[in-house]
Amino acid sequence: MTEMRPVTEAAPQTAPVKTLALPDAQTVTFVKHWTDRLFSFRVSRPASMRFRSGEFVMIGLMGDPDPKTGKQKPLLRAYSIASPSWDEELEFYSIKVQDGPLTSKLQHIQPGDEIILRPKPVGTLVHDALLPGKRIWFFATGTGFAPFASLLREPQTYEDYDEVIITHTCRQVGELTYGAELIESLKTDEMLNELIGEGFWKKIKYYPTTTREESPKMGRITDLMRSGEAFADLGVPQINPDNDRAMVCGNLAFNLEIKEMLEGYGLVEGANSNPQHYVVEKAFLD
Ligand code: A2P
């Protein structure tokens, strides 16, 4: 995709039409639509870009030309990187909002197209922000699964913890598929089994729940924890600051509710500069 420089009245008639490459352009290599509301895609990775699994970057497309000036501005949103830090490409997992300024367009990308990617990764869902512990909890709703798709493929996750519990609450069963398939794929991923250790995936306990469509486990994870049902199902004791660490990524109401619950269990919020027991990131929506 290229930006056409608007031809102004002052420009000589014979001037060649210049095309400007997108700033920070990366090429789309793969797109998969999971439901009518969700899709994932992969893009080339800038050669010099380093990041920590769990971080996010700003990505986007050129916006529509300004009706008055004809100028286009980049339309960027924060997206968690869903691929791990060692991957050659970058993966993203996105919602499609039909009237969303960015995702109404982004959902139509095809392999070979270009997107804008500002190569400045940041974020709090990183291992550096947590103190050592026995068990790590990844709490996700909806597209909040994305940073955990990265961290579940990150060797350090398994070096640092004996158990990795990933909960994912969605409205519909189909919204769980991206995460469910990713976790299932770890079992047969030869490179990861060699790199991290044969059978590393046995440390994972996956706890998917739905709230608006029938599935084996119904309900919000917050309610299932409050009642004790989630802990009983998983065969683990209630969360406590001695053993448990947590990362949270979901919609705002979910983040606030689970934050309050984690504080109630005695966990303290950490940051890159002050590692503690849990960290929270918003799942960014259009
Ligand atoms: P619910 O259907 O009961 O609202 P959304 O698509 O709106 O971002 O929601 C994703 C999932 O997160 C839904 O299953 C939704 O459940 C759940 N959810 C929303 N708010 C909360 C909350 N405060 N605590 C726990 N789960 C929540």
TrEMBL record:
<comment type="similarity">
    <text>Belongs to the ferredoxin--NADP reductase type 1 family.</text>
</comment>
<keyword id="KW-0521">NADP</keyword>
<dbReference type="InterPro" id="IPR001433">
    <property type="entry name" value="OxRdtase_FAD/NAD-bd"/>
</dbReference>
<dbReference type="InterPro" id="IPR017938">
    <property type="entry name" value="Riboflavin_synthase-like_b-brl"/>
</dbReference>
<keyword id="KW-0285">Flavoprotein</keyword>
<protein>
    <recommendedName>
        <fullName>ferredoxin--NADP(+) reductase</fullName>
        <ecNumber>1.18.1.2</ecNumber>
    </recommendedName>
</protein>
<dbReference type="InterPro" id="IPR039261">
    <property type="entry name" value="FNR_nucleotide-bd"/>
</dbReference>
<keyword id="KW-0560">Oxidoreductase</keyword>
<dbReference type="GO" id="GO:0034599">
    <property type="term" value="P:cellular response to oxidative stress"/>
</dbReference>
<keyword id="KW-0547">Nucleotide-binding</keyword>
<dbReference type="Pfam" id="PF00175">
    <property type="entry name" value="NAD_binding_1"/>
</dbReference>
<keyword id="KW-0274">FAD</keyword>
<dbReference type="GO" id="GO:0042167">
    <property type="term" value="P:heme catabolic process"/>
</dbReference>
<dbReference type="InterPro" id="IPR033892">
    <property type="entry name" value="FNR_bac"/>
</dbReference>
<dbReference type="InterPro" id="IPR051930">
    <property type="entry name" value="FNR_type-1"/>
</dbReference>
<dbReference type="GO" id="GO:0000166">
    <property type="term" value="F:nucleotide binding"/>
</dbReference>
<dbReference type="InterPro" id="IPR017927">
    <property type="entry name" value="FAD-bd_FR_type"/>
</dbReference>
<dbReference type="GO" id="GO:0004324">
    <property type="term" value="F:ferredoxin-NADP+ reductase activity"/>
</dbReference>
<feature type="domain" description="FAD-binding FR-type">
    <location>
        <begin position="21"/>
        <end position="128"/>
    </location>
</feature>
